[in-house]
Structure formats: C-alpha cells, structure tokens
Amino acid sequence: MARSTFVLTLLLALSTVLLSSAFAPTFGVRANRLVSTELAVNIKVDIGDGEPIESALRRFKREVSKSGHLIELRHKKYFENPQEKKKRKIKEGRLRIKFERLQKQRMAKNRT
C-alpha cells in the first residue's frame, strides 16, 4: 500500500513538473507585475490493499481528466485573445448542454 501510494505521488509530481514546464513558464513578467501561470493540482487517489497498479493508474488518469487541468494548460499554451476565449466558452457550453440533454434522455429511457 505504501509503495503504490508513493508511486502515484511520484507520478503526480513528475507529471505536474513536466506539464507545467512544457506548456508555460512558471512565472512571467508582464507590465512590471508578476503573473503566475501555475495551476494548483491537488488530485488524490486512494489505493486499496492488493489493488493492481494498472487500475489505480486508470483511476488516476480519469481523475486528472475530470479535473480539467490538462485542458486548461492546453489553452494557456498559446495566447488567446478575449474574443476567442468567449467563443470557445460558448462552444463548450453548447457541448455541455448537448451531453446533459443526451444523458437525461438515456436516463429516462432506462427508467421505462
């Protein structure tokens, strides 16, 4: 248990360091003020006794994906002006509403 927790903690730390340095600098100076581009990553996966490391890694990857940190880093990789950001947010909202509607239809279909 301790070994697998250590391995996941190490993977999280390495992925945070590698991804944050690969996509954006840790600190940048803009108009004489300090601007931080770091994201606070706090993802924790508890591992049961005798649980295979593959399933724990799968759960860890799912949690990282759900948290949205990688998507946020991808958006910060290049400069995005406010108009483009607004368009992207509207498009993401439409997709989210569409998926929620589909999920609601599936749930209603399963109940009947």
What does this structure look like?
The model has no long low-confidence stretch (mean pLDDT about 80). The chain has about 110 residues and is mainly alpha-helical. Strand 1 and strand 2 (about 35) form a beta hairpin. The chain has helices at about 1-25, 55-65, 70-75, 80-110; strands at about 25-30, 35. Helix content is about 65%, strand content about 5%. The protein has a two-stranded antiparallel sheet. The protein is flat, with a radius of gyration of 19 Å.
Task: Explain briefly what this protein structure is.
The protein has helices spanning 2-23, 53-67, 69-76, 82-111, and strands spanning 27-30, 33-36. By secondary structure, it is mainly alpha-helical.
- Annotation field: number of helices: 4
Q: What portion of residues belong to β-strands?
A: 5-15%
Task: State the separation between the terminal residues, measured CA to CA.
Answer: 43 Å
The biggest sheet amounts to: 2 strands, antiparallel
- The dominant shape is flat
Structural class: mainly alpha
Low-confidence stretches: none
User: Total strand count, please?
Assistant: 2
Approximately how much helix is present in the residues?
A: 55-70%
Task: Report the radius of gyration as a whole number of Å.
Answer: 19 Å
Question: Largest sheet, order of strands side by side?
Answer: 1-2
What is the average of the pLDDT values? 78
Order of helices and strands: HEEHHH
Helix-strand layout with pairing:
Blueprint: H1 2-23, E1 27-30, E2 33-36, H2 53-67, H3 69-76, H4 82-111
Antiparallel strand pairs: 1-2
Distinctive features:
4 helices; two-stranded antiparallel ribbon; single chain; mainly alpha; 112 residues
